[in-house]
Write a structure and sequence with these properties.
TRPM; 18 helices; membrane; SLATT_1; single chain; alpha/beta; DUF4231; LSDAT prokaryote domain-containing protein
């Protein structure tokens, strides 16, 4: 069975391998430098996993006691955790060492976990029904309990590493599948696999006591030397998210450690969950606040328009009802008809046409009167609606809740990036012996949450966040949001990402501000034209439109935001220049790393704090104006009610006087 991929013109051969006792596995043969890892799982009919475990190491010729420990770790710990997490195992696939232990553990316990072995085809004895005679080959056998294989077209050990980590990169970075690499024993090839894991940001669990590379890395972590000569080991120690687990510890502890890495119940993932909740609720309150303000502005403009339109209709209606209107026009035309020297038939025809015309004119008057009454109803309702919306804005206070939640979300985000960059109080230099980074992060998150609950946000329900973690729209490209960051990665994923945001935002704000300024000037020019055309009545509408544009710009703090963004962008550019000017030795100094991270976070906080203070002032002014407007609406209603009451008294008095006059006449 073969499959073709048309874009790269690479032929992929899918075959079925048959092992002893009738066990079968699907095997996909791929070229050495196959560049479409997203196709591999689908062609093997492996559904997208919820998690993944990369198994790295050797563990041949183990001592009997150590082999027993490892066997229990695999059967009761590793394989069980993977089955519960619906994880995919990615291994070397050979029938030796830890791959054999894993295959037997999964098979003995009846787990349905998919085992994917990736190995060079030329180094292994591939048993198929057509070549079972090769069973006596001196090549290494494939592990028979694996469910799937990817056979790389090569005869060199290590050639499969590229395909293995292209697939891991696709799962971890693009499909956001949580992965963990498990190192047991291991040699030079395992060292390269661990390096690739570290560079992708995949956490590594090192089983201390299993020998060779695993013990070497555990020693370097627990007793770090002043200098590591091996460049690969130095990079792994410096940049990797490494977790040391002693082979003598309990199976349950290893199971729990794997759960923490795959299920995401780590402190960092909890931090992202807290950020996502605050961020989503901030956006919800912002949306409510913006919609209410938009409706209030539009109703104000609409009310002005309807009042002007009603006034115009009343003016025309009053003209039609005067003696210069329909009656005068009818008299004048009848006079002309009498003066016209035409026969009786022609005069009758003209009279009928004129009669129809005046009937239509009277209907138009009736229609205009109905329109005026309808407009009066709407003009009466609009202030009531505005008053209701203003009361809702004051009662629910979505604007202040939006700002408070946004401030808390940004505070959590600053903690996350400082933690990931291991800077400030998260750095090794400032950590106390009885504290861990996770403990400090948890305390900081607790403090932020406690401060938030002291505000008016506590009076409303926070909706839970059910999406992906970390939220996709908060991360830079290729940043998984969970791995620790070197200074270089922090520069790319945090500083430069925010710099690009500010630069793009300033361009958008500048264009929008210029467009609104031009709109205001154009509407002002139209108002001048209306005044020149003696249409002063409609100038009030242009005034209302200009007031709406001004209110919109003030609510969005467009000019203030533009200044803040420009200042923040300039500060970040200066900080980037300072860092790039440092020598390699200076960039490795923890003090300079702390300066880079903390100064960048300070710039971002200063920009947000300035914007927030401006928004609070604006909301305060807006609230005062809206309360004043509500008071004006109440006063206007009171005056209208008094006027109606006075008119009703006058009508009643007139009726009484008319009644008395009628009685006197009788």
């Amino acid at each position: 069975m073969t499959a073709h991929y048309s874009e790269s013109q690479q032929e992929l051969k899918l075959e079925t391998l048959t092992f002893a006792q009738g066990k079968k596995a699907a095997a996909l043969q791929v070229p050495l430098h196959y560049d479409r890892p997203e196709n591999l799982l689908s062609m093997l009919n492996i559904k997208s996993p919820k998690a993944g475990i990369i198994l790295s190491g050797g563990a041949e010729k183990l001592e009997a006691e150590l082999a027993i420990h490892l066997s229990q770790l695999f059967s009761r710990g590793i394989a069980k955790a993977a089955a519960n997490m619906e994880a995919l195992f990615i291994t070397g696939g050979t029938d030796s060492g830890i791959m054999r232990l894993l295959g037997r553990s999964v098979d003995d316990h009846g787990y349905k976990t998919p085992l994917l072995g990736i190995t060079p085809r030329g180094c292994c004895d591939v048993l198929t029904p057509a070549n079972e005679e090769k069973n006596k080959s001196e090549k290494i056998q494939l592990e028979p309990h694996h469910s799937h294989f990817i056979l790389v077209d090569s005869e060199t050990w290590g050639a499969e590493t590229e395909t293995m980590f292209q697939l891991a990169d696709h799962l971890f970075t693009h499909e956001r599948v949580p992965l963990v690499t498990l190192l047991i024993n291991g040699g030079e090839l395992s060292k390269l696999e661990i390096l690739r894991s570290v560079r992708l940001g995949i956490p590594v669990i090192i089983v201390e006591g299993s020998g060779r590379l695993a013990d070497q890395l555990a020693d370097l972590i627990q007793t770090p030397p002043h200098f590591i000569q091996d460049a690969i080991l130095a990079e792994i120690i410096a940049d990797g998210e490494l977790h040391v687990f002693s082979v003598t510890r309990s199976v349950e502890e290893l199971e729990r450690l794997i759960y923490r890495q795959l299920r995401g119940d780590s402190t960092l993932k909890s931090a992202w969950q807290q950020f996502a909740i605050y961020d989503a609720n901030a956006e919800r309150h912002q949306s409510i606040f913006r919609r209410l303000q938009w409706v209030i502005i539009l109703l104000g403009v609409l009310g002005t328009f309807l009042a002007l339109f009603q006034s115009t209709l009343r003016s025309e209606l009053s003209v039609l009802k005067t003696e210069q209107g329909i009656p005068m026009t009818e008299t004048a035309i009848n006079y002309l008809l009498r003066q016209e020297k035409s026969d009786n038939r022609t005069q009758e025809k003209i009279s009928l046409q004129l009669s129809d015309y005046f009937v239509c004119a009277r209907h138009s008057v009736c229609l205009m009167e109905m329109t005026v009454k309808t407009l009066s109803l709407f003009i009466l309702l609009i202030p009531i609606l505005i008053s209701l919306l203003l009361a809702a804005v004051t009662r629910f206070n979505s604007g202040h809740k939006w700002l408070t939640l946004r401030a808390s979300a940004e505070a959590v985000k600053r903690e996350i990036y400082t933690y990931r960059a291991t800077a400030g109080y998260y750095s090794d230099d400032q950590l106390e012996t009885d504290q861990s980074r996770e403990t400090i992060l948890a305390k900081r998150l607790q403090l932020i949450g406690h401060q938030l609950m002291q505000t008016e946000v506590n009076n409303s329900a926070l909706k839970n966040y059910q999406g992906e973690l970390p939220p996709l729209n908060t991360l830079s490209n290729r940043d998984n949001g969970m791995s620790f960051l070197t200074p270089e990665l922090y520069l790319i994923y945090r500083l430069e990402d925010q710099l690009d945001y500010y630069l793009n935002k300033t361009n958008q704000l500048a264009k929008r501000t210029q467009m609104l300024h031009w709109a205001g000037l154009s509407i002002g020019a139209i108002g001048t034209l209306l005044a020149a055309l003696s249409m002063e009545l409609w100038i009030a509408l242009t005034t209302a439109l200009i007031a709406a544009i001004t209110s919109y710009m003030e609510q969005h703090q467009m000019e203030t935001s533009l200044r803040k963004y420009n200042q923040a962008a300039a500060d970040l550019i200066g900080l980037r220049h300072w860092w790039m000017a440092l020598s390699a030795r200076e960039q490795a100094d923890q003090m300079n790393i702390d300066n880079l991270v903390l100064e960048c976070e300070r710039v971002l906080q200063a920009e947000f704090s300035g914007w927030m203070e401006e928004m609070k002032d604006t909301l305060g002014k807006l609230k005062a104006e809206q309360e004043k407007r509500m008071e004006e609406i109440r006063e206007k209603r009171r005056q209208e009610q008094e006027l109606k009451s006075e008119e009703a008294k006058n009508r009643l008095q007139a009726l009484k006087e008319a009644g008395r006059a009628a009685e006197m006449e009788k």
